[in-house]
Amino acid sequence: MKQIIRRLARVGDSSQCRSANTNGKNSGLRQSHVREVPEGHVPVYVGEEMERFVVRTELLSRPVFLELLRRSAHEYGYEQRGVLRIPCTVRVFSTVLDSLLSGDGAHSDADLIRYIDCDA
């Protein structure tokens, strides 16, 4: 996991930006033009459709994100080049992300991990 997190710090992909947030909080920017990743954020690509999300780096230390990173390493290996891919559906990732960003504590990380498992 430390290898992945170190590598994320160096990722500077400036592909089409998709928001890591669908509920209006300022976690990322939805853009129709090329834009660099804001400081304190990291781009991830989710699902088979490779939808791009820009996620706050502080979320990477959450247990649910550590589980997603572990699954990414298992699925694609530590040596994958280029972008960081997350092996779950966009729908599930968006739900998990929205839950984390809401800050209301309605769902624990364990609940979110079980939610990911149900979709696998």
UniProtKB/TrEMBL annotation:
Record-linked Pfam families: Auxin_inducible
Annotated PANTHER family: AUXIN-INDUCED PROTEIN-LIKE-RELATED, AUXIN-RESPONSIVE PROTEIN SAUR72
UniProt name for this protein: SAUR-like auxin-responsive protein family
Superkingdom of the organism of origin: Eukaryota
Entry's family note: Belongs to the ARG7 family.
GO biological process entries: response to auxin
